[in-house]
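Listing S7. Sequence submitted for prediction.
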Amino acid sequence: MATVLISLVVGVAAGVLSGLFGIGGGIVIVPALILFLGFTQHKAQGTSLAALLLPVGALGAWKYYQDKNVDFGSAIPIALGLLAGALAGANIASSLDPVTMRKVFSVFLVGIAIYLWTKK
């Protein structure tokens, strides 16, 4: 149950950030699955692609599925969270001016870069 809840939160966060910045899988979902659910890199990537399946990752997700690197128990709640989160993020983004959006996005990217640079 905790995995489903964490997966749903990851999906909502990715949806909001996708709506705000046009990002999601590689920058949000994959690191979150590794950090919060202890997924391997392959399983996180396969699960992210499955969550973003249509039309983004159908062929990639299929290959990961064949290699048993997709967790549908996490992919489905992430996909549901993406639905709601993308709408929320788009609504927030539309209320922000372009300069503020650029600054917020820049801070987000720098934060991700610092995390990835310093992670062992």
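Caption to Listing S7: primary sequence and predicted structure tokens for the chain studied. DSSP finds six helices and no strands in the chain. Residues 72-95 form the longest helix (24 residues).
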